[in-house]
Design goal:
- This protein is mostly helical.
- Helices cover 66% and strands 0% of the residues.
- It contains six helices and no strands.
- The structure holds iron/sulfur cluster (SF4).
- The site of iron/sulfur cluster has 12 residues, from helix 3 and helix 5.
- Iron/sulfur cluster binds next to helix 3 and helix 5.
Length: 115
């Protein structure tokens, strides 16, 4: 998570450790939320990505927070979430921001009736 003093929750860790931490967090979230609806699971994953974003680049820092706000709405703005997801995938500078929209994309593709 980005902090105002410029530090991050995973500052000082090697990239491989960051990737392992992200993968472990995703596995835990998926396992804990297997009985959730897909939309609820995707929202929990987006919350995880927002909290783990180091804040270095805008598409990830702002995109994860904005996506979570949009996903909190009773009815998702699907076109806007689709555009936001594409921008995050195209412009984020590391795998965390590039992968964060994947759960959203899956819900929009396979479970649009939920949102
Ligand atoms: S995409 Fe990577 S570098 Fe950019 S804010 Fe997210 S975690 Fe940091």
């Amino acid at each position: 998570m980005w902090r105002s003093n410029g530090s991050t929750s995973h500052a000082g860790r090697e990239p491989a450790h960051q990737a392992a931490a992200v993968a472990a967090g995703v596995r835990q979230e998926v396992a804990a939320r297997q009985r959730d609806r897909a939309a609820a699971a995707a929202k929990n994953l987006m919350r995880f990505f927002r909290d783990e974003s180091c804040g270095q680049c805008t598409p990830c820092r702002v995109g994860t927070a904005k996506a979570l706000t949009l996903m909190d709405e009773k009815t998702w703005n699907q076109p806007l979430l689709g555009e936001l997801s594409q921008a995050m995938m195209d412009a984020s500078i590391c795998g965390l921001g590039q992968a964060a929209p994947n759960p959203v994309q899956s819900v929009l593709k396979y479970f649009p009736h939920e949102v």
